[in-house]
Design brief:
single chain, 259 residues, alpha/beta, 17% strand, globular
Length: 259
């Protein structure tokens, strides 16, 4: 199979970072050609570590931001720190930001304010935005319409919506990235949405160390498992896995301007 790009994982997460050499070795053996590692979770130190990893490995790139769970901490100082970190040439996107109305670890108002700040930062820095959306598709779309889509576009990572949501996000200018959830037996709406995403907007990811695909569900996820997600996604879309590997990798390289 052609090389695959894992467009979203969290290599700085302690579950992966403690075994980083092994994780990357297995990814290479599985034919993973590049990885976009996302900081965003917890403190700014996660973003710094993510950039450090990317600077040590030429096939790894970084995205930095404030996760919706931590949106209450996304003040002007945090945005200023992200702007400074984004000067690294290894930073290819802003995020993940967005809305999570399922868990509401941060108040909805704080999430919406943080999202607008991320959209502005992505536009200012001419970088794409990485979006997390959970039980908030309509509100997210509304904010993007009001604030404006960053000129470099963006991606709805770990897509969990239905066909209508997929179509709306594509119309707004987003790419749609599918995680291991698409392999779950109870993910019928996501599976129905999978064939509706145009070839030039579809991508794959692990969101590792979370959401391992079947048959690894319940285990620690890692980039090497993205191959299984791609195989299931290819079946849902009615194409050969090798062809989808090429399509998704070309989309990722174009969106994130990967070498």
């Amino acid at each position: 199979m052609n090389p695959i790009i894992d467009t979203h994982c969290h290599l700085a997460d302690p579950k992966l970072y403690a075994d980083l050499d092994g994780v990357l070795h297995r990814a290479t053996d599985a034919g993973i050609g590049a990885i976009v590692s996302v900081g965003a979770i917890s403190s700014i130190e996660t973003d710094r570590r993510t950039i450090e990893i990317a600077e040590r490995h030429p096939h790894i790139y970084a995205a930095i931001g404030v996760h919706p769970h931590d949106a209450k901490d996304c003040d002007a100082d945090r945005i200023r720190a992200l702007r400074e970190l984004a000067q690294s040439k290894r930073v290819v996107a802003i995020g993940e930001s967005g809305l999570d109305f399922h868990y509401l670890h941060s108040p909805a108002e704080a999430q919406e304010t943080a999202l607008r700040r991320h959209l502005e930062l992505a536009a200012e820095l001419e970088l794409p935005i990485v979006i997390h959306c959970r039980n908030a598709e309509a509100r997210l779309a509304g904010i993007v319409r009001e604030a404006g889509m960053p000129p470099r576009g963006g991606v709805i990572h770990c897509f969990t919506g239905n066909r209508d949501a997929a179509r709306e996000f594509v119309a707004l200018g987003f790419h749609i990235s599918f995680s291991g959830i698409v392999t779950f037996r109870n993910a019928r709406e996501i599976q129905q949405a999978a064939p509706t995403v145009p070839d030039d907007r579809v991508m794959v990811e692990t969101d590792a160390p979370y959401l391992a695909p079947e048959p690894y569900r319940g285990k620690r996820n890692e980039p090497s498992y993205v191959r299984r997600t791609l195989e299931v996604l290819a079946t849902l879309r009615g194409v050969e896995a090798d062809r989808l590997a090429t399509i998704t990798s070309e989309n990722a390289r174009r969106l994130f301007r990967l070498a």
